[in-house]
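ok new one. same drill as before - structure tokens go in, u give me an amino acid for every spot. 130 of them this time. try not to just spam alanines like last time pls lmao
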């Protein structure tokens, strides 16, 4: 199975895209991983239909790509999005925009930064002799 078959996309304005990338960096996670976590949360919380639908990002927009774990997960999200009256891409966009305001993931992680410390390479070298 190709990686493209598992891909999903959300579209944000350039400003929101930059904010989403910065948010992911703050969490120490790739933006695609943050996007997948938000979609997986939606599949449990079912709050998409209660999110305020706003106008799309218009002509100047940037993609937020991610990958599902398997085709079953992708199909379930697509069905859920359509049951809420939106396309999967529009659903992803709504979830990503909401997270920029809510910061649920940051609160859930307790403000942890999951990226390795900047001196990670030195720490590994120092521990090689033990």
């Amino acid at each position: 199975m190709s990686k493209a078959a598992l891909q999903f996309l959300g579209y944000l304005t350039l400003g929101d895209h930059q904010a989403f990338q910065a948010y992911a960096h703050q969490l120490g996670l790739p933006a695609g991983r943050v996007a997948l976590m938000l979609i997986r949360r939606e599949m449990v919380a079912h709050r998409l239909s209660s999110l305020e639908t706003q106008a799309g990002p218009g002509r100047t927009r940037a993609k937020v790509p991610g990958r599902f774990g398997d085709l079953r997960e992708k199909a379930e999200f697509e069905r859920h999005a359509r049951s809420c009256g939106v396309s999967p891409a529009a659903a992803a966009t709504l979830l990503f925009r909401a997270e920029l305001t809510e910061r649920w993931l940051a609160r859930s992680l307790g403000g942890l930064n999951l990226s390795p410390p900047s001196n990670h390479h030195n720490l590994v070298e120092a521990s090689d002799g033990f």
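Helices lie at 14-27, 31-45, 71-83, 88-102, 104-108, 120-127. and btw The longest strand covers residues 7-13.
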